[in-house]
């Protein structure tokens, strides 16, 4: 059985994301303030299970909502859910919420740059999920509407990195709340690990969360936007064949030594910015910064930067003389272009040279990713020993 209320319709997706769930609330507000709404609010407020939650001067942890707005919000959800899914479904979800000891929420990092057909499990608690398999939330509905938008220059997420965490349902005033489970940092490190694969970039778009067990109208949304990556127009398909290297890189990033962590994470972030950049100058500069953070990490006196840059990269990555010569030559090209941009603001004065740079951009990116990944997995080398051993 359902309410026989007019269902919400939303067809204009050419507005900012907040518009979807705000439009739902606007649609159901008259019903919330009607006799039906009064009955439902009283039902929730008078429920002994609800009263038990707030006994002993405890506050319900439901975002920043106070007790009164909590009742209003749950009533709003109840009307919406009954109308969309039926009374039986809605009462079951409400019962499940009251019966469990803790809240369980999904932490979601929406990402651009990748798509996949099937869910990939990175750990027992973290997975990469295609948008088609994500639970119904306002975020998913908005991003799924992308083909309907007249915004060809802008990419919205087609996948998300998902984990879960738990927290108490109530707390006393000034009581510290303990959150257990997947952290924001862990989800970000999955995106960073994926971005070490050749020319693939998994760019963070939005970090958000939703309470599991209730539809998303009043249980989450919003969060942190990563605006520096928003104009990423890359898209690559990932699958199970890349799972092992993603897991290896992720585990290394999570367990990285403290004195190594900041350099490495900053370097990968710069690599990701380079991969996202549409302008060749920005791409080269960010790529070089990423490499310099690692290849020149101990060069405090700026001695022979260009030579150290290409020599260290060649010795680190090359297994044979031929490989070392190729890496050395490519890094020399990259550093030369970087110097030209930094000192004159242009790639080159010659059209043929500019064309060559554009043609080789992916080659440069893949080499940079290999060097960073090598140092991540093997640790910072002793540069003097590496040089002398050759």
Q: Gap between N and C termini, in Å?
A: 77 Å
H-E string: HHHEHHEEEEHEEEHEEEHHHHHHH
Helix content, binned percent: 40-55%
Summed up, the domain count is 2
Number of helices: 14
Mean pLDDT: 84
Assign an overall shape. elongated
Furnish the topology, listing elements before pairings.
Elements: H1 19-32, H2 35-46, H3 48-53, E1 58-60, H4 67-85, H5 87-99, E2 102-112, E3 114-115, E4 120-121, E5 127-130, H6 138-144, E6 159-168, E7 170-172, E8 180-181, H7 184-194, E9 203-211, E10 224-225, E11 236-237, H8 243-254, H9 258-276, H10 280-295, H11 305-317, H12 321-344, H13 351-378, H14 383-389
Parallel strand pairs: 3-11
Antiparallel strand pairs: 1-7, 2-6, 2-9, 4-5, 5-6, 6-8, 9-10
Helix pairs in contact: 1-4, 2-4, 4-5, 7-8, 9-10, 9-13, 10-12, 10-13, 11-12
